[in-house]
Amino acid sequence: MEVEKLNLPKNWLITGGCGFIGVNLVDKLLREFPQVNIRILDNLSVGTRDDLKEVCEFQEIFTQDIKDTPKGIELLVGDIKDYEICLKACKGVEVVVHLAASTGVPQSVENPRRDMEMNVLGTFNMLEASRQQEVEKFIFASSGAPLGEVEPPIHEEIAPKPVSPYGASKLSGEAYCSAYYRSFGLKTIALRFGNVYGPRSKHKASVVAKFFKNALNEKPLEIYGDGKQTRDFIYIDDLLQAIFLAVKADVGGEIFQIATYRETTVNEIAEKIKGLVEEVTTKKVEVIYSSPRPGDVKRNYSDITKAKKILGYEPFYDVDRGLRKTFEYFRDKNK
């Protein structure tokens, strides 16, 4: 997909832009839409300046420096829980891609207040700042967690019943996106990401990243429960395609499942990663099992019919191809 053909906006704000998805988004925007201006708001709790340096040169700015639209690539270090910083960050931008969040079910179970403050208050701050600064489009990174334990494939018409604090906080974000479109006309789109994986995920605590890191360091691949739990694993490039299409789409107040419409067990992922590492290196990889984690759903994959029909979204990578490209990244990093 050629981004130029989408006629994307020129001035962007990406929250959490130093994280895994954010850095890949910056890189793809700069390669395919070089005239873009990007302001990044990140508290550097996960991603770092060095992660951003891997894909671009940037200028670090402070709130007093923000007078108008972004110029080139700007990094504003700040927290989305601080409304005044959010308000400044949104100045002069046409689109906000809101990636900053407290992510993960286990973390939310361990500290539900932190999860709520980041994902509920932080998202509200970004929406209100976007409204005040007359942002045209707001893309919210959600997940399947708001739906809870339901019979898959999951889709947009299922009534949400979250089983984890993380799911509840993401559901709140979706609700505020709907309200800000219907009350104020801010064109919001919530994208429910599948389990995202790919290059530059070294800080990510997700199963694919963790398994590759452990395998290459000759540590066992630990599976919680029996490994028969399923997820819909989406390669990062397919996810970025969905973000671009959502930015361009002339719709608001909508939710879309963004995944591959394929169900893969954790056991399958472990075996594929074990096979890749043992095939290419001399390392032997062990798989072990431990107790299930509270709040984890048993089966989860997504019906992406709505995204195909309205956004024109079509995933390109299957699991084998995506895992091989991800392996190459982790192998090179491990040298």
Can you describe this structure?
The protein has 335 residues and is α/β, with parallel strands linked by helices. It has helices at residues 20-32, 49-53, 83-89, 105-110, 112-132, 165-184, 207-216, 236-248, 266-280, 305-311, 319-334; strands at residues 11-15, 37-42, 59-61, 73-77, 95-98, 137-143, 187-193, 195-197, 221-224, 230-231, 233-235, 254-258, 264-265, 287-290. The chain has a domain at 8-197 and 234-261 and 302-316: 3-Layer(aba) Sandwich (Rossmann fold), CATH 3.40.50. Helices cover 40% and strands 18% of the residues. The strands form four sheets. An eight-stranded parallel beta sheet has the order 3-4-2-1-5-6-7-12, sandwiched between helices. Strand 1 (11-15), helix 1 and strand 2 (37-42) form a beta-alpha-beta unit. The two termini are 32 Å apart.
Task: Give the helix/strand layout.
Layout: E1 11-15, H1 20-32, E2 37-42, H2 49-53, E3 59-61, E4 73-77, H3 83-89, E5 95-98, H4 105-110, H5 112-132, E6 137-143, H6 165-184, E7 187-193, E8 195-197, H7 207-216, E9 221-224, E10 230-231, E11 233-235, H8 236-248, E12 254-258, E13 264-265, H9 266-280, E14 287-290, H10 305-311, H11 319-334
Parallel strand pairs: 1-2, 1-5, 2-4, 3-4, 5-6, 6-7, 7-12, 8-11, 9-14
Antiparallel strand pairs: 10-13
Helix pairs in contact: 3-5, 5-6, 7-9, 7-11, 9-11
Strand content: 15-25%
Number of strands: 14
Helix/strand/pairing category: alpha/beta
Q: How can the largest sheet be summarized?
A: 8 strands, parallel
Mean of residue pLDDT values: 94
Q: How many DSSP H or I helices? A: 11
